[in-house]
Amino acid sequence: MDKEVILRELQFKAIRSSGPGGQHANKVSSKVELTFDLATSEGLSVPEKERLLKRLDTKLNKDGNILLQCDESRSQHKNKDLVIQRFFGILEAALTVRKKRKASKPSKSAIEKRLKSKKIASLKKANRGKPEL
């Protein structure tokens, strides 16, 4: 993954942010929308693209683009930085290879300890009953 190439391929669009804000919100486009075309990216290798397509299928729109928005800050520049950080975080998380789980079984001592505690619990409950005359 070549971050500089990917950074050049990103497309940004400034939109008016929703919600309260008075006159300032009505005239300033502070919300930032990031668009990234995964299929035509030159910053990703073919195996990385396949992995991202598989792992990020829920985040892709019908054109195969990743679309992220940020309107946390009142500043367009801060929102742009935040959405870029979020985008690269999503990419890195999707590209990490998870370790395979090794099947394991409990040790003999753990099995014996569990069975012993079960036997003690069953005796305790059996002794709670009414005594036979």
Q: Residue share in helices?
A: 40-55%
**Protein structure class:** alpha+beta
For the CA atoms, what is the radius of gyration?
Answer: 28 Å
The first-level CATH class name of the domain at 3-95: Alpha Beta
- Enumerate how many helices there are, as a single number: 5
Shape, principal axes of CA atoms: elongated
How far apart, in Å, are the first and last alpha carbons?
A: 81 Å
Number of strands: 3
Q: For the residues shown, what is the average pLDDT? A: 87
Strand adjacency order, main sheet? 1-2-3
* Main sheet summary: 3 strands, antiparallel
What layout of secondary structure does this protein have?
Blueprint: H1 3-9, E1 11-15, H2 22-27, E2 31-37, H3 46-55, E3 65-70, H4 76-95, H5 108-126
Antiparallel strand pairs: 1-2, 2-3
Keywords: Hydrolase
Protein name: Aminoacyl-tRNA hydrolase
GO molecular function: peptidyl-tRNA hydrolase activity; ribosome binding; translation release factor activity
Can you tell me about this structure?
The protein is an alpha+beta fold and 133 residues long. The protein has a domain of 93 residues: Double Stranded RNA Binding Domain. Helix content is 47%, strand content 14%. Strands 1-2-3 form a three-stranded antiparallel beta sheet, with helices on one face. The longest helix is centred in the middle third of the chain and has 20 residues. The protein is elongated, with a radius of gyration of 28 Å. It starts with a helix and ends in a 7-residue tail after the last helix. The mean pLDDT is 87.
